[in-house]
Specification:
This protein is α/β, with parallel strands linked by helices and about 260 residues long. It is about 45% helix and about 20% strand. The chain has nine helices and seven strands, in the order αααβαβαββαβααβαβ.
Length: about 260
């Protein structure tokens, strides 16, 4: 049995772009052959040609994304990111960690493997956007990896079902920017609320100003609240992602927020 962490670029999305391209390609010659000359034919042909270009570009982009994120491929970007985040989580014996937005279980399992004497809980709402990610998949992946100190449950990142100061560490990867919100800093605070005094956090996301606002002010706020060693580490400088990749992949602003409460 082998773990299947899926792909951050779903196959279905790649297939839909390719299908859209094929459909648009079919309309262009059909319009030329079947429609009478006139404004309507011109419009249909022009719109179909534009759709071919748009869907074709999206197909190429999504396919390249799929290849980059493939756990079994050459680049294995997602695997490098997951293992890189896990290196920042060092749990005490008997300690606990929360992985917010665990998806296929990759990060929670990686942390559990590095901390065999601690417990890791992964939560996710497993929405329809990533229909192939679910709790049974996470549990099967943990079993495939031979990891028993990890569990998974349904959860909402905006309203965590845990008391204040529950965990020795909290972690997350590329989750919060996907949540529709005018205040993603508030979602970060909701996660950090569950962290024990002295606990550590490692949160990787696209921390651009457009998505999060002024993160330097947020870091200052955390320090004023008593947090220690708060850092925002750029991960697009070759740490896990190359600058050139970040641009075309839409990952500019990716960084790792780390620190101690």
């Amino acid at each position: 049995m082998k773990a299947d962490y899926k792909n951050w670029m779903p196959k279905g999305m790649v297939a839909s772009f390719i299908g859209g391209t094929a459909g648009a390609l079919a309309i262009v010659p059909a319009a030329k052959l079947l429609m009478p000359e006139g404004p309507a034919k011109t419009v249909v042909t022009a719109v179909s040609a534009a759709a071919v270009c748009a869907c074709g570009g999206a197909s190429v982009w999504s396919y390249l994304m799929y290849r980059a994120f493939d756990y079994n491929g050459t680049r294995q970007m997602s695997k490098q990111i997951i293992e890189g985040i896990a290196e920042y989580v060092d749990l005490p014996e008997g300690g606990t960690c929360l992985d917010v937005g665990c998806g296929s279980g990759a990060l929670a399992i990686a942390i559990a493997k590095r901390n065999p004497k601690a417990e890791v809980i992964g939560i996710d709402r497993w929405g329809k956007e990533y229909a192939s990610f679910n709790k049974p998949l996470c549990e099967n992946n943990a079993k495939a990896e031979g990891v028993e100190n990890v569990s998974f449950r349904q959860g909402d990142a905006t309203h965590l079902d845990f008391a204040d100061e529950t965990f020795d560490a909290v972690a997350s990867n590329y989750v919060y920017h996907n949540i529709p919100s005018k205040d993603r800093q508030a979602i970060l605070l909701e996660t950090l609320r569950t962290l024990k005094k002295g606990g550590t956090f490692a949160i990787h996301d696209i921390f651009s100003e457009a998505k999060y606002g002024d993160m330097q002010s947020f870091i200052k706020k955390l320090k004023e609240m008593g947090y220690e060693k708060v850092d925002l580490i750029d991960t697009t400088n070759g740490k896990w992602i190359m600058k050139s990749e970040a641009g075309w992949m839409g990952l500019s602003g990716s960084a790792l927020l780390t620190g101690t409460k």
